[in-house]
Amino acid sequence: MKTFKKSPWSSAGPIYVAAAAFVGGVLVFPATVSGMFLAGLSSFCGWAISKMFWPKQLVELEDNSKKPEPAPEPVKQEEKKPEPDQGIKKRPRTGDASIDALLDEEEKAIAEMRRLDKAIEDEKVSGQIVHLEEVTTKIVNFIVENPSKKSQVRKFFNYYLPTTLKLLNAYDRMDETGISGMNIDGTKGKVEEMMDTSLAAFDKQLDALYADDALDISAEIKVMEGMLAQEGLKDDAITGLR
Fold first, then answer.
1. What predicted TM-score, i.e. pTM, was given to this entire model?
2. Where along the chain do its domains lie?
3. pLDDT tens string 58-103
4. Which of 48, 77, 195, 241 is the most buried (most CB within 10 A)?
């Protein structure tokens, strides 16, 4: 904003008046010392009088009286809070790339299960989610201890588990509407039924992983029974029962 102030110096107008008064005095008064004095006196009087009434000049001056406005503080951006880890304990990695990738998938899946468990109020669905987490953890535990069988759970982690989570997310979205209707209630009911089917299949998947162990144990039992019978240490051999 421009600021105008009166200059401490008058304009040149009074000087012109003094000059005119001096010239007039020279013409009026005789060309003597006293005449020149009177001409100079009249010039001074003209300058002094005109200076009193002559308006001062307005000049544009920089006004430094105002303090410079402080620079605005930079707006602090809100720091994004890290996503909660849902209390998941990170497993130590094995060094096997495929097993470690499986562990990554497990942690992501369990984090999503726990989020859904908190979001969905239905007790039956909540129980299904807890069961899903338990069987998933047991499957991963088995594969970590038996890496050679990782191929048996590839479809479980690549399709069955992600699809189940997708269905639960759809249930959660419909549940959030807070309304009851033919489409919403019907879809939620189908998801609940599918969860029962999926969990039964996941339990069978876990059971199948122990098939070889079951065969080995059965073979060991038969061998041991035979040896006990040969030694006469088996009850039916001792009593003569067959």
1. 0.58
2. 4-60, 97-209, 211-242
3. 555 555 555 566 666 665 555 444 454 556 778 889 899 999 999 9
4. 195
The yes/no answer on whether domain 97-209 falls in CATH 1.10.3470 is no
Residue 184, token pair as written in the block: 């919403």
User: Hey, what are 179's tokens?
Assistant: 């309304």
What φ, ψ does residue 96 adopt, rounded to 5°? Answer: -85, 115
Q: DSSP code of 153?
A: G
Average of per-residue pLDDT values in the chain: 79
Which neighbouring-strand residues pair with 6?
58
Q: Please give the C-alpha separations between residue 231 and each of 26, 70, 134, 161, 219, in angstroms, as whole numbers.
A: 163, 101, 45, 51, 19
Residue 238 is predicted with a pLDDT of 47
Q: Cα(126)–Cα(51) distance, rounded to whole angstroms?
A: 99
Question: Rounded to a whole number, what is the distance in angstroms from the first to the last CA of the chain?
Answer: 117
Strand partners, 5: 59
